[in-house]
Design goal:
The protein contains 13 helices and 15 strands. With 439 residues, the protein is of the alpha+beta class.
Length: 439
Amino acid sequence: MKKVLSIVGALLIAAVIGGCLYLNSLMPIITGYAAKNLASAVFVSGRDAKTVEDLDLNFSFIRFNKNKVDYENKTVMSRFLWGKATAAYREGYGVTLLRGAHANDLEQQVCPSSDEDMPQRPLPMGDSATKARLEPIAKAFVDDRAYNGHPFAFVVLHKGGVVAERYDKGITPDMKLLSWSMAKSFTNAIAGVMVRDRFVNIYAPMDMPEWQNDDRKDITINDLMQMQSGLEWNEDYGARSDVNLMLHREQDMGLYALNKPLEHKPGSFWYYSSGSTNIVMRYLCGKFPSDQAFLAYVHAKLFAPLGIRNAVFESDMSGTPVGSSYLYITATDFARFGQLYLEDGCVDSLRVLPEGWVNYTTTPASNSENGYGSFFWLNRGKELPDVPEDMYYCKGHDGQRIFVIPSKDLVVAILGYSPMPDHVIDFNTLLKDIISNID
């Protein structure tokens, strides 16, 4: 009996030690998620900290963090058990999760210039009769949650004009909201602008020093943008997946992703990867002498023509914008972006994206089963069965969407906190109802 008890005791001790070691490995994710997202919500969006904690951070281990918001120094420290993380805000750069450095170290990076003096370009108003028909849908969606989810903002453009616009309590029209993975589609646009200006060739090998001694040297920007790089990756958001480690532990997110080994021949296997987007962003940024020069280019060549003022594309500690996840602009700005693609990459008579870029973007990746183009999702496989097949869209975590439907001359932008599986929005019914009420 004593022997049995000794074995059982040893097993229990081993289990406790193993559990603690595993929990310790999760600490950067648990504390980093809370610190980063709370700091961005407070200092970039201007939301109330308690509201964010009660809604956006009220899940899994994240809800057990003790968060300290320092409004004077614009930092957030989050603690869970023995772990802690700090995120710091800088004007122009937004929030950066500190890993292995102090906030003062980030101040050495020069702040990008402000867009405050850029003229405002208000969106035109759409047909008044259409607006009247969509008003009950907007109210039902945002106020009554009739389509499920927790929407913050809802903007509909028809024929280029605003026909619906509504905001949740505490959310204002000028509030910058989080893109999550809709940022990937903006990375597509940045690549397009740089193709137009002959900075890059998306079909040529990328000449990465880290890839020159193996078959990764054949990977192209196109492979990465179509999610067919062949690089090993785990996008499962549970526990210690690659995407969680990259976003919450790494100083240089693109470097972390590009150091992954090759599992499949480039261009032969489709797998959704936030790491791929950060490789592309790191590569594009590397074409400029500094991250400040790159951000100035992005603001001048993409955001300014669209009338997007003071966009915040948050960077990692290396200074590279996190192209997979962390863009903050207003709801109407997200709608403007969708309209750019609806208008074949033009704003009025100005061509922002190269001719043919939207067609390239919406051409299915060869192994995506018609579901994915180039950093945009497609409806060719009728994921939303009551919505036209020509629809393509930007898709972000927790229900962020920009739907572009060329056959209906329609753009729908949705921001909020609508996590799966319990609170996912019924996008199919929502879009069907919108389409049935436009001319």
